[in-house]
Predict the 3D structure of the following.
Amino acid sequence: MTNRAYVIAGSEATGGAGIQADLKAFQELGVYGMGTITCIVSFDPKKDWAHRFVPIAPQVIADQIEAATSCHDLDVVKIGMLGTPETIDVVAEGLRGRSWRHVVLDPVLICKGQEPGAALDTDKALTAQILPLATVITPNHFEARTLAGMESIETVDDLVEAARRIHELGPRHVVVKGGMELPGPDAVDVYFDGEETTVLSAPKIGNARVSGAGCTFAAAITAELTKGADVGKAVEVAKAMVREGISHRLVTHAPFASVTTLAPTAG
Ligand code: PXL
């Protein structure tokens, strides 16, 4: 396990999403993982599992980035939930301080439980500061609508249009995840590399969103890029892995199931 992958993301205390899912995906795909925690999310079972959100102090984030990047030669990083404009400032500065072969951005836009006003500032800061540094971005349906400025995304053509618009914001590789949100029997993702569009389609499993699927998807892409795969191949492996993880999801006491992190089986 000589390939090293890095993630800067939030902790999600139930283990389904966030940096917990990221590090499990890294391990499962055979890369050595290390992480910088940006915030701590603890769902509240007394309040319908609402998000309790605590940001980590910016200096502590800077310290973690310093420790990880001084200890290891890293050239691929995944960015997950950041959560506040202050966090975005310090992470953007950390990223700018070195050259990356790939920055994989899962643009986690709004966390329930945050002040709506603060979330708006956070979305703006993410778009202004982190998006231009990303080489790969993996927005879900809601994030794609927000970033592309589209009122609705209902068809595969809409997904393609969203991917093209988001590409113009900077990232060379855009994967828009249709997930459960598009009508029809298939979960459809669209990958656009600036020239070619690839539609990835697989039958939906169940009819509910599964916690941690997006985190695992971007983490798996990151792990594969670390090992030298090209983005198209990395996206394929990630889609297969999330499918496997959704079919083996954990039923929990919360109203959502949690993805498990299993390497895709051959074939
Ligand atoms: O799945 C999005 C996500 C990412 N990161 C953290 C989270 C969540 C959703 O709850 O808590 C830390």
Q: What stands out?
A: The radius of gyration is 17 Å. Residues 9-12, 17-18, 41, 80-81, 108, 214-215 surround PXL (CB under 6 Å). The mean pLDDT is 93. The longest helix spans residues 231-247.
